[in-house]
């Protein structure tokens, strides 16, 4: 990200916000109002106050300071919040307005580059998850923080993430989003159809559209995962739960705070309450007809894009268990609009 930290927060223009989208309050409003997200962090910290009493806490990507304040309220002796966005100027005011000036220290800059007031922390807290869990690659930053600053035996909130796929029937929306390009006011726009198909769609999907069992494709244990593990190929087997058609794969993730005595977890799946992460849809080039009990097998590969490691190159190859030839589709996860403003109603 091209930082505009030299521009005072109250003089930023749309060009500055494009470079530093996290500086705008709107993006934080959306995250704070996501009660599943923010409420889960609050519960995990509040209900396990004994883990925070007298402890040092590093908040990686503190934004408006909400997680830092939960930790301070739970009794942490010192919380250091780091953020590279200008939003940290507001966080400083918020922390002072709420009486946490003596407990919370904020540091402006990239976690990878800043000098912290202490070098070892008992606990790391961070909300790093992107669309499809890994979009935006902020997990790399948390792993960097873990390896440099977490005390041996220290805790990470949250400490487990699981990514799932299933298949969905989605004819109407596929017509609207993909097949639309076949005929635009009588003109052939089908060159865009191929591009649209390769861009995963972030949207909410109704549970009734899901036509297979889900399959876990990646489990990330934050205490042990390495950066290299985030480039992976995972096999999947999806068993149809009814006779139907498949138009797309659907991905979502679950997050849990397992290091706590009183466990907290939340899901971003189609069976769970809405979150701003919604789900991620990968349309298939053609429709697959599937019968109850039949298996669809395949592999999903995921890697940071070589030119922009915040983007993801995702490929899915799949076939019915009874077929010889697999179909392979290469997707590019590249959210052009500022992160989390996508489909936000501002655009
Ligand atoms: C998803 S937001 C979470 C904000 C806040 N913790 C919350 O829960 O509301 C992630 C924040 O991390 C910051 N961030 C991302 N990468 C960073 C890095 N490498 N160093 C410092 N801050 C970073 C962004 O500017 C953004 O404010």
TrEMBL record:
Residues 57-154 form the Methyltransferase domain. Keywords: Methyltransferase, S-adenosyl-L-methionine, Transferase. It comes from the Eukaryota. Residues 159-321 form the Protein arginine N-methyltransferase domain. It is an enzyme of class 2 (transferase). GO terms for biological process: methylation. GO terms for molecular function: histone methyltransferase activity; protein-arginine omega-N asymmetric methyltransferase activity. The keyword Transferase applies. PROSITE patterns: SAM_MT_PRMT. Its EC number is 2.1.1.319. GO terms for cellular component: nucleus. It catalyses: L-arginyl-[protein] + S-adenosyl-L-methionine = N(omega)-methyl-L-arginyl-[protein] + S-adenosyl-L-homocysteine + H(+). This is type I protein arginine methyltransferase. Pfam families: Methyltransf_25, PRMT_C. The keyword Transferase applies.
């Amino acid at each position: 990200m091209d930082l505009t930290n030299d521009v005072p927060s109250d003089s930023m223009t749309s060009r500055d916000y494009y470079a530093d989208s996290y500086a705008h309050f709107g993006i934080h409003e959306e995250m704070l109002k996501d009660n599943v997200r923010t409420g889960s962090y609050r519960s995990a910290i509040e209900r396990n106050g004994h883990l925070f009493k007298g402890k040092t806490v590093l908040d990686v990507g503190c934004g408006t300071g909400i997680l830092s304040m939960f930790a301070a309220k739970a009794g942490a002796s010192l919380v250091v919040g780091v953020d590279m966005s200008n939003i940290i100027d507001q966080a400083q005011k918020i922390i002072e307005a709420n009486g946490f000036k003596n407990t919370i220290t904020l540091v402006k800059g990239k976690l990878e580059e800043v000098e912290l007031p202490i070098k070892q922390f008992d606990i790391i807290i961070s909300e790093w998850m992107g669309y499809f869990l890994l979009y935006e690659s902020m997990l790399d930053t948390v792993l960097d923080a873990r390896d440099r600053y977490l005390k041996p035996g220290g805790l990470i909130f949250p400490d487990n993430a699981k990514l799932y796929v299933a298949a969905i029937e989605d004819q109407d929306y596929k017509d609207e989003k993909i097949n639309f390009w076949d005929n635009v006011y009588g003109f052939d726009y089908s060159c865009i159809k191929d591009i649209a198909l390769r861009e995963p769609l972030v949207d909410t999907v109704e549970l009734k559209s899901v036509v297979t069992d889900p399959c876990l494709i990646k489990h990330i244990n934050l205490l042990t995962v390495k950066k290299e593990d985030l480039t992976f190929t995972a096999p999947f087997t999806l068993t149809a739960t009814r006779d139907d058609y498949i138009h797309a794969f659907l991905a979502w993730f679950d997050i849990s705070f397992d290091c706590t005595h009183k466990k907290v977890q939340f899901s971003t799946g189609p069976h769970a309450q809405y979150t701003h992460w919604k789900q991620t849809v990968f349309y298939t080039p053609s429709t697959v007809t599937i019968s109850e009990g039949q298996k669809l097998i395949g592999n999903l590969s995921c890697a940071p894009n070589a030119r922009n490691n915040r983007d993801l190159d995702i490929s899915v190859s799949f076939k019915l268990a009874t077929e010889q030839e697999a179909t392979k589709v290469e997707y590019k996860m590249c959210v052009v609009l500022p992160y989390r403003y996508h489909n936000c109603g501002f655009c």
